[in-house]
Design brief:
Layout lengths: L4 E2 L12 E5 L4 H13 L3 E6 L19 E5 L2 E4 L1 H4 L1 H6 L10 H13 L1 H12 L6 H21 L11 H13 L18 H11 L2 H4 L5 H12 L24
Parallel strand pairs: 1-3, 2-3
Antiparallel strand pairs: 2-4, 4-5
Helix pairs in contact: 1-7, 5-6, 6-8
GO molecular function, one term: glutathione transferase activity
Protein name: Glutathione S-transferase omega1
Keywords: Oxidoreductase, Transferase
Length: 254
Protein backbone atom coordinates (compact mmCIF):
# COMPACT_ATOMS: atom_id res chain seq x y z
CA UNK A 1 0.00 0.00 0.00
CA UNK A 2 1.19 3.51 -0.77
CA UNK A 3 0.27 6.80 0.82
CA UNK A 4 2.25 8.80 -1.75
CA UNK A 5 0.75 12.16 -2.65
CA UNK A 6 0.85 12.96 -6.35
CA UNK A 7 2.03 16.43 -7.31
CA UNK A 8 2.64 18.81 -10.19
CA UNK A 9 3.87 16.88 -13.21
CA UNK A 10 2.65 13.48 -12.00
CA UNK A 11 0.32 11.60 -14.31
CA UNK A 12 -3.30 10.92 -13.46
CA UNK A 13 -3.60 7.22 -12.54
CA UNK A 14 -5.61 5.04 -14.88
CA UNK A 15 -9.33 5.00 -14.23
CA UNK A 16 -10.50 1.52 -13.19
CA UNK A 17 -14.25 1.96 -13.38
CA UNK A 18 -14.76 2.36 -9.62
CA UNK A 19 -15.70 5.36 -7.58
CA UNK A 20 -12.51 7.34 -7.11
CA UNK A 21 -11.75 9.72 -4.26
CA UNK A 22 -9.13 12.45 -4.58
CA UNK A 23 -7.93 13.25 -1.10
CA UNK A 24 -5.08 14.32 1.15
CA UNK A 25 -4.25 11.82 3.87
CA UNK A 26 -4.30 14.37 6.70
CA UNK A 27 -7.34 16.35 5.53
CA UNK A 28 -10.34 15.97 7.88
CA UNK A 29 -12.81 16.86 5.13
CA UNK A 30 -11.46 14.16 2.83
CA UNK A 31 -11.54 11.72 5.73
CA UNK A 32 -15.27 12.29 6.05
CA UNK A 33 -15.79 10.93 2.55
CA UNK A 34 -13.49 7.96 3.11
CA UNK A 35 -15.37 7.04 6.29
CA UNK A 36 -18.74 7.20 4.56
CA UNK A 37 -17.58 4.99 1.70
CA UNK A 38 -16.03 2.56 4.18
CA UNK A 39 -19.29 2.43 6.11
CA UNK A 40 -21.30 1.88 2.93
CA UNK A 41 -18.92 -0.97 2.04
CA UNK A 42 -18.63 0.09 -1.60
CA UNK A 43 -15.62 -0.39 -3.82
CA UNK A 44 -13.52 2.68 -4.50
CA UNK A 45 -10.03 3.86 -5.39
CA UNK A 46 -8.19 6.46 -3.35
CA UNK A 47 -5.72 8.92 -4.85
CA UNK A 48 -3.80 11.32 -2.61
CA UNK A 49 -2.59 14.70 -3.88
CA UNK A 50 -0.07 17.23 -2.62
CA UNK A 51 -2.07 20.38 -1.85
CA UNK A 52 0.99 22.64 -2.03
CA UNK A 53 2.07 21.37 -5.44
CA UNK A 54 -1.18 20.20 -6.97
CA UNK A 55 -1.18 18.00 -10.07
CA UNK A 56 -2.66 19.88 -13.00
CA UNK A 57 -5.48 17.38 -13.55
CA UNK A 58 -7.06 17.84 -10.11
CA UNK A 59 -8.77 21.01 -11.39
CA UNK A 60 -10.72 18.84 -13.84
CA UNK A 61 -12.42 17.22 -10.85
CA UNK A 62 -12.46 20.08 -8.35
CA UNK A 63 -12.46 23.61 -9.84
CA UNK A 64 -10.64 25.13 -6.86
CA UNK A 65 -8.27 22.20 -6.51
CA UNK A 66 -9.70 21.31 -3.11
CA UNK A 67 -10.29 17.86 -1.67
CA UNK A 68 -12.22 15.71 -1.42
CA UNK A 69 -13.51 15.20 -4.93
CA UNK A 70 -15.44 12.10 -5.93
CA UNK A 71 -15.17 10.82 -9.51
CA UNK A 72 -18.40 8.88 -9.98
CA UNK A 73 -17.92 8.30 -13.72
CA UNK A 74 -14.77 8.70 -15.78
CA UNK A 75 -14.02 12.42 -16.01
CA UNK A 76 -17.11 13.40 -14.00
CA UNK A 77 -16.92 14.38 -10.35
CA UNK A 78 -18.61 16.13 -7.46
CA UNK A 79 -16.75 17.99 -4.73
CA UNK A 80 -17.22 19.34 -1.18
CA UNK A 81 -17.62 16.68 1.52
CA UNK A 82 -21.05 17.93 2.60
CA UNK A 83 -22.34 17.37 -0.93
CA UNK A 84 -20.36 14.24 -1.72
CA UNK A 85 -21.32 12.29 1.38
CA UNK A 86 -25.06 12.36 0.82
CA UNK A 87 -24.62 10.82 -2.64
CA UNK A 88 -23.37 7.35 -1.63
CA UNK A 89 -25.93 7.16 1.17
CA UNK A 90 -28.71 7.63 -1.37
CA UNK A 91 -27.05 5.66 -4.18
CA UNK A 92 -26.33 2.65 -1.94
CA UNK A 93 -29.28 2.47 0.50
CA UNK A 94 -27.87 -0.11 2.91
CA UNK A 95 -26.74 0.49 5.54
CA UNK A 96 -28.54 3.81 5.86
CA UNK A 97 -26.34 6.47 7.44
CA UNK A 98 -29.01 9.14 7.85
CA UNK A 99 -32.13 9.10 9.97
CA UNK A 100 -35.39 8.26 8.23
CA UNK A 101 -37.12 11.10 10.10
CA UNK A 102 -36.68 14.44 8.26
CA UNK A 103 -36.66 16.34 11.57
CA UNK A 104 -33.86 14.18 12.97
CA UNK A 105 -31.85 14.71 9.76
CA UNK A 106 -32.29 18.46 10.21
CA UNK A 107 -31.21 18.20 13.86
CA UNK A 108 -28.12 16.25 12.83
CA UNK A 109 -27.19 19.01 10.40
CA UNK A 110 -27.57 21.56 13.20
CA UNK A 111 -25.15 19.56 15.36
CA UNK A 112 -22.57 19.77 12.59
CA UNK A 113 -23.21 23.47 12.09
CA UNK A 114 -22.96 24.25 15.81
CA UNK A 115 -19.61 22.47 15.99
CA UNK A 116 -17.90 24.62 13.34
CA UNK A 117 -16.54 27.15 15.86
CA UNK A 118 -14.66 24.35 17.65
CA UNK A 119 -13.26 23.20 14.31
CA UNK A 120 -12.08 26.72 13.51
CA UNK A 121 -10.40 26.94 16.91
CA UNK A 122 -8.56 23.70 16.15
CA UNK A 123 -7.19 25.05 12.87
CA UNK A 124 -6.00 28.24 14.53
CA UNK A 125 -4.39 26.39 17.43
CA UNK A 126 -2.70 23.89 15.13
CA UNK A 127 -1.55 26.09 12.26
CA UNK A 128 -1.80 29.75 13.24
CA UNK A 129 -1.06 29.87 16.97
CA UNK A 130 -0.22 33.62 17.10
CA UNK A 131 -3.80 34.39 16.08
CA UNK A 132 -5.27 32.23 18.85
CA UNK A 133 -7.59 34.25 21.11
CA UNK A 134 -9.08 33.26 24.50
CA UNK A 135 -12.53 33.31 22.91
CA UNK A 136 -11.42 30.57 20.52
CA UNK A 137 -10.47 28.33 23.43
CA UNK A 138 -13.87 29.08 24.94
CA UNK A 139 -15.60 28.23 21.66
CA UNK A 140 -13.65 24.99 21.47
CA UNK A 141 -14.83 23.87 24.90
CA UNK A 142 -18.37 25.08 24.22
CA UNK A 143 -18.31 22.75 21.22
CA UNK A 144 -17.21 19.83 23.36
CA UNK A 145 -19.86 20.62 25.97
CA UNK A 146 -22.48 20.85 23.25
CA UNK A 147 -21.60 17.42 21.86
CA UNK A 148 -21.65 15.89 25.33
CA UNK A 149 -25.11 17.34 26.01
CA UNK A 150 -26.38 15.97 22.68
CA UNK A 151 -25.04 12.51 23.51
CA UNK A 152 -26.67 12.69 26.92
CA UNK A 153 -29.96 13.89 25.44
CA UNK A 154 -30.05 11.17 22.79
CA UNK A 155 -29.03 8.43 25.18
CA UNK A 156 -27.41 6.28 22.50
CA UNK A 157 -23.78 5.20 21.95
CA UNK A 158 -23.54 7.33 18.83
CA UNK A 159 -25.22 10.53 17.73
CA UNK A 160 -26.86 8.56 14.92
CA UNK A 161 -28.20 5.97 17.35
CA UNK A 162 -26.99 2.46 18.11
CA UNK A 163 -24.55 2.60 15.19
CA UNK A 164 -22.43 5.40 13.76
CA UNK A 165 -23.98 7.38 10.93
CA UNK A 166 -23.35 10.37 8.71
CA UNK A 167 -23.44 12.88 11.57
CA UNK A 168 -20.80 10.87 13.45
CA UNK A 169 -18.55 10.44 10.42
CA UNK A 170 -18.83 14.17 9.70
CA UNK A 171 -17.66 15.19 13.17
CA UNK A 172 -15.17 12.41 13.85
CA UNK A 173 -12.18 13.59 11.77
CA UNK A 174 -11.90 16.69 13.95
CA UNK A 175 -12.30 14.81 17.22
CA UNK A 176 -9.53 12.52 16.02
CA UNK A 177 -7.26 15.52 15.50
CA UNK A 178 -8.26 17.32 18.70
CA UNK A 179 -6.30 14.72 20.67
CA UNK A 180 -3.09 15.91 18.98
CA UNK A 181 -3.29 19.48 20.29
CA UNK A 182 -1.87 18.82 23.79
CA UNK A 183 1.05 17.03 22.10
CA UNK A 184 2.04 20.22 20.26
CA UNK A 185 2.03 22.41 23.35
CA UNK A 186 -1.67 23.31 23.56
CA UNK A 187 -2.74 21.80 26.93
CA UNK A 188 -5.74 24.13 27.11
CA UNK A 189 -7.30 22.02 24.35
CA UNK A 190 -7.05 18.73 26.24
CA UNK A 191 -10.26 16.74 26.49
CA UNK A 192 -10.54 16.21 30.25
CA UNK A 193 -11.92 12.70 30.72
CA UNK A 194 -13.51 13.69 34.02
CA UNK A 195 -15.30 16.76 32.71
CA UNK A 196 -16.13 15.14 29.38
CA UNK A 197 -16.69 11.55 30.53
CA UNK A 198 -19.55 10.80 28.14
CA UNK A 199 -17.76 12.42 25.21
CA UNK A 200 -14.58 10.49 26.03
CA UNK A 201 -16.57 7.24 25.97
CA UNK A 202 -18.02 8.24 22.60
CA UNK A 203 -14.55 8.97 21.22
CA UNK A 204 -13.30 5.53 22.24
CA UNK A 205 -16.39 3.92 20.73
CA UNK A 206 -15.80 5.74 17.44
CA UNK A 207 -12.22 4.45 17.30
CA UNK A 208 -13.62 0.92 17.26
CA UNK A 209 -16.10 1.50 14.44
CA UNK A 210 -14.75 -0.57 11.50
CA UNK A 211 -15.08 2.31 9.02
CA UNK A 212 -13.00 4.52 11.32
CA UNK A 213 -10.54 1.84 12.39
CA UNK A 214 -9.49 1.23 8.79
CA UNK A 215 -8.38 4.87 8.35
CA UNK A 216 -7.58 6.08 11.87
CA UNK A 217 -4.30 7.83 12.66
CA UNK A 218 -2.98 8.27 16.20
CA UNK A 219 -2.70 11.61 17.94
CA UNK A 220 1.08 11.32 17.74
CA UNK A 221 0.95 10.90 13.96
CA UNK A 222 -1.32 13.91 13.57
CA UNK A 223 0.98 15.93 15.84
CA UNK A 224 3.97 15.10 13.64
CA UNK A 225 2.14 16.26 10.52
CA UNK A 226 0.94 19.44 12.23
CA UNK A 227 4.49 20.25 13.28
CA UNK A 228 5.82 19.67 9.77
CA UNK A 229 3.15 21.93 8.30
CA UNK A 230 3.79 24.61 10.91
CA UNK A 231 7.43 24.66 9.80
CA UNK A 232 6.31 25.38 6.23
CA UNK A 233 7.21 21.95 4.88
CA UNK A 234 4.22 19.63 5.34
CA UNK A 235 5.35 16.02 5.20
CA UNK A 236 2.53 14.61 3.10
CA UNK A 237 4.34 11.35 2.47
CA UNK A 238 5.34 10.52 6.04
CA UNK A 239 3.19 7.36 5.90
CA UNK A 240 4.24 6.25 2.42
CA UNK A 241 5.63 2.73 2.16
CA UNK A 242 6.02 2.38 -1.59
CA UNK A 243 6.24 4.32 -4.82
CA UNK A 244 2.83 3.27 -6.14
CA UNK A 245 -0.28 5.45 -5.90
CA UNK A 246 -2.51 4.40 -3.05
CA UNK A 247 -5.71 2.60 -4.00
CA UNK A 248 -7.92 1.03 -1.35
CA UNK A 249 -10.56 -1.30 -2.75
CA UNK A 250 -13.53 -2.16 -0.64
CA UNK A 251 -15.81 -5.10 -1.10
CA UNK A 252 -18.82 -3.91 -3.05
CA UNK A 253 -22.20 -4.16 -1.43
CA UNK A 254 -24.51 -6.27 -3.57
Amino acid sequence: MSEKHLQTGDALPQYNGKLRVFAMRFCPYAERTVLVLNAKNVQYDLVFINLDHKPEWIFNFSPKGTVPALEYEQGKAIFDSNIINVYPDEQYPEPALQAADPLRRAQDKLIVENFTAAQSAYYTAAFNAPALQPTMVENYHKGLEYLQKELESRGTPFLNGDSAGLVDFTLWPFLERFEALPLIGKPEFAIDRTKYALLATYIEAMKNVPAVKAYYLTADTHAKFIESRAKGDPNYNMLDTSEVCCMRPRKKKE
